[in-house]
Write a structure and sequence with these properties.
With 189 residues, this protein is of the alpha/beta class. It has 4 helices and 7 strands. The longest helix has 13 residues. The chain binds S-adenosylmethionine (SAM).
């Protein structure tokens, strides 16, 4: 039985993905989500707590862990505030260090500009979505060769082919923040 801990779970989009994947593979899974904010719509067992503190105290209860720490410290969307002196907590580093002190296999997800190893790169249009939102995933305490090729983008944000969470997108179909990766296995455009 997989006992998955989903840290920084928000309303459970990621947890639901794991649930559906396990179902498709015929695997038994029990999911617990942790978030600092109340998440009344979270569909599995939920604990409101600081993710790092909870993990340090309770990691031994779980067989697998996923962490999607806030990206404000690294995303270009907050560079203006950081430039004005705003300091964001380095949740990514804190949770990564805590995860590395255990032997539990895990995944950390974040934005492309975050300092994590892009063992896996996923983008919205790979799943037929109208948002691009490239996200990188680092494997912790295990290695895996999971490097699907990013499909070549067709269309642009400006033409309305994709929705953008911030900014207006570029004519070439990428936002100025959506930079290509120097990583084997991904298609650079
Ligand atoms: C990037 S979102 C996670 C998205 C989520 N994985 C999903 O599938 O929608 C980050 C979440 O971290 C939560 N958060 C921020 N600081 C936290 C902390 N110290 N401990 C736990 N959760 C925290 C926020 O409330 C937010 O819901």
């Amino acid at each position: 039985m997989i006992k998955l801990l989903d840290l920084y779970c928000k309303a459970g989009g990621c947890s639901m993905g794991y649930y559906l994947a396990a179902k498709e593979l015929g695997l038994e899974i029990q999911i617990t989500g942790v978030d600092i904010e109340p998440q009344p719509n979270y569909p599995f067992m939920f604990i409101q707590a600081d993710a790092v503190e909870f993990f340090k105290e309770s990691a031994w209860n779980y067989t697998h862990v996923h962490a999607s720490p806030p990206c404000q410290k690294y995303t270009p969307s907050t560079s203006l505030f950081r430039g004005k002196g705003k300091i964001y907590r380095d949740s990514l580093l804190e949770i990564k260090q805590a995860m590395l002190l255990t032997s539990i296999p895990g995944i950390i997800e974040n934005v492309p500009s975050a300092p994590i190893t892009p063992n896996l790169v996923l983008r919205g249009d790979m799943f037929g979505l109208k948002v691009l939102r490239t996200r990188v995933f680092e494997t912790i305490n295990y290695t895996a060769t999971i490097i699907p090729q990013l499909p070549k983008k067709v269309g642009t944000v400006r033409n309305g082919d994709y929705a953008q969470v911030c900014g207006h997108g570029s004519k070439k179909g990428m936002s100025k923040h959506d930079k290509p990766f120097k990583h084997p296995g991904t298609v650079l455009e």
